[in-house]
Design goal:
Elements lengths: L1 E7 L2 E2 H4 L7 E7 L2 E2 L3 H5 L1 E8 L13 E9 L3 H10 E17 L11 E10 L11 E4 L6 H9 L6 E4 L18 E5 L5 H10 L4 E5 L10 E8 L2 E8 L2 E8 L11 H15 L3 E6 L2 E6 L2 H13 L3
Parallel strand pairs: 1-3, 2-4, 3-5, 5-6, 6-7, 7-8, 8-9, 9-10, 10-11, 11-12
Antiparallel strand pairs: 13-14, 14-15, 15-17, 16-17
Amino acid sequence: MKGIFRRLPKVDLAEALANPESSWLLLDRILDVTGWKRLPQLGRLDRITLVNCATSEAAPEGGRVETDALYVHTLSPACLRAIAGMADAVEVTIWHFETPVLDLSVLRHVSRLRNLFLHCGIATGFGQLSAAKLERLHVSNVAVDDEFRNVLASSRETLTQLWLANNEPLRPEDLPVLPKLKELRVPSHPETLDTWRAWRAAHPDVVLKFQTVAPPSATLPATAIAEIHRDAAIMRVTTGTKISYESWGDFTRLSRIKGNNHDVRAWLEKAAAKAKRKVKVHSEADELGVTAARIEDIRWAIDAMADGPA
């Protein structure tokens, strides 16, 4: 039995999935999804799909629902955290451009993951997947750091397909040895093409393809980590010729301001106005974002939240 719900102001999963024989969940353009505790009670769903959804409710800790495939597209950060934290999926597809960074801590409880497809500004936090044995991995943009390389290395005996379309140039030495690899796609940055062609000649068993790097645009900006400031990542976001800086996360863990991220946002907006800092602040229950034209204003905001009221 399929649970299909479209264009509704609210869906309470506890009521919508009252039938224990539900096998597939599709939520499409739901303004407020609640009743997350119902999913673990089902034990298993063949497929879970969420598109253009938000939630006012945090998912309960500890509950999991097994599924063959989780597909999510354009969710609010809170909704993404809720469903990604509950669905123990073999295949996960995430389209996330609501914030510039996709932190894979949202998948830290997934134990059955084999295929992962990420379309986002930039994916970070691959250390959360250190135990995964991936077979296919597609990422639109990733911070190629030690965490990412370690995840690839831990999947060296299982990974057969790797697609990377990074904004920044990628070189063969950036990747560990992957003996089971059958198909590799890398970005077509001109300065690395000759190196990759030489690599292809030395690895005839691997199909190597070049992926065109799209120029930054309003719908697909180029995102990179500019720096880490007080354990918070500051992102450089390029849209055409315009560059801005953003930092996103659950700043209640960093801030001395009491309350949730909405409370932190209200305090920070007043502090920014008093300090004459041009920052924009956005908040959800479990995420806050700060945007500015200058990186020093983002540093100031992070310092202000961490240090608290004077």
